[in-house]
Design brief:
globular; eight-stranded mixed sheet; 11 helices; two-stranded antiparallel ribbon; alpha/beta; binds S-adenosylmethionine; 19% strand
């Protein structure tokens, strides 16, 4: 089923969390000169027009990125976490919102590589057009769950992988776990970010998060941002999202301090009925 279009959700609270952390991780990898590969298994259209397009219908960006921008307008750089400051510097224009491929495109260096998978025919064409002038980037109209393993381990032995399915079908939950297991088996030292939803009436997101946390024995963390009210179901069978999260394998060690600073700030700006949080598991260096 390919009914999902990310344009409806562009710039919402889930994107803010995911993209702020993605920006942090990519910038961290850029601190070392050696090239790396960025893999986006579910890449979307690349960039989204906020006015007049699909994004206009739900206006999710109004309660996410736009609200954050508004609330931080008068905040000095020194009073904001560097992670958010960096993220906001990439979403300055009010007319468009950058998806994950656009952020990677802005951050990666000339000698890094980008491989994006997008299965939806229309979003694939938009993404291909969006990245068409970038010789670092390759866009594949194929299944990202399947394609991921063919890229691992990368020749440079450095990679950041974003696994960001739409979870439209139950199959996506199983495929996410299998793809992550296979990826970690082939390339256990990669930096992986796996996004998951948190639904009001369906605990599939929480179960997936717990399964993902259980399958890796190295350093990892989970991060959640609550953007809605868990007591109030809206619309769909699953009751809508009350938040979202990421499971991150081999996170940059600097991310812990960034999350301590960023999450309370984000919660104050765009948070819902209760605070999100994070859990940091440092198995290789448990004393830290
Ligand atoms: C949540 S959106 C991606 C958003 C994007 N990563 C971002 O942060 O800007 C998920 C995308 O995955 C695509 N998709 C769904 N199943 C897929 C699959 N098996 N392989 C590749 N892409 C898929 C959908 O068409 C949709 O555009």
């Amino acid at each position: 089923m390919l009914g999902y279009r990310h344009a409806f959700h562009a710039g919402g609270g889930a994107d803010v969390l995911k993209h702020a952390i993605l920006v942090f991780c990519l910038k961290y990898l850029c601190q070392k000169e050696k090239a790396f590969l960025y893999i986006d298994t579910h890449a979307g259209a690349g960039s989204y027009a906020l006015a007049g397009g699909y994004a206009e219908q739900n206006k999710e960006w109004k309660t996410g990125a736009a609200k954050l921008m508004e609330k931080t307008e008068k905040t000095k750089q020194s009073e904001m976490s560097l992670a958010l400051y960096d993220y906001l510097s990439y979403i300055k224009t009010p007319a468009t919102y950058p998806g994950s491929p656009a952020l990677a495109q802005k951050i990666l260096r000339p000698y890094d590589r980008i491989v994006c998978y997008e299965k939806h025919p229309a979003d694939f064409l938009l993404l291909r057009e969006f990245l068409s002038h970038d010789c670092r980037a390759e866009v594949r109209n194929a299944d990202g769950f399947e394609g991921l393993k063919s890229l691992l381990p990368p020749p440079s032995r450095r990679a950041c992988v974003l696994i960001d399915p739409s979870y439209e079908t139950q199959d996506d939950y199983k495929k996410t776990v299998s793809a992550v297991m296979e990826a970690l088996r082939r390339f256990p030292t990669g930096l992986y970010l796996v996004w998951h939803p948190l639904f009001v009436l369906d605990d599939a997101g929480e179960t997936l998060r717990d399964n993902l946390m259980a399958l890796y024995s190295g350093n990892q963390c989970r991060v959640e941002l609550i953007t809605g009210d868990k007591r109030h179901a809206i619309g769909t069978k699953r009751g809508g999202l009350y938040g979202s999260g990421l499971v991150i394998y081999n996170p940059p060690w600097t991310l812990k301090a960034a999350l301590e600073e960023t999450l309370p700030f984000l919660t104050r700006c765009i948070g819902g009925d209760h605070a999100g949080g994070f859990q940091w598991i440092d198995r290789r260096n448990p004393a830290q």
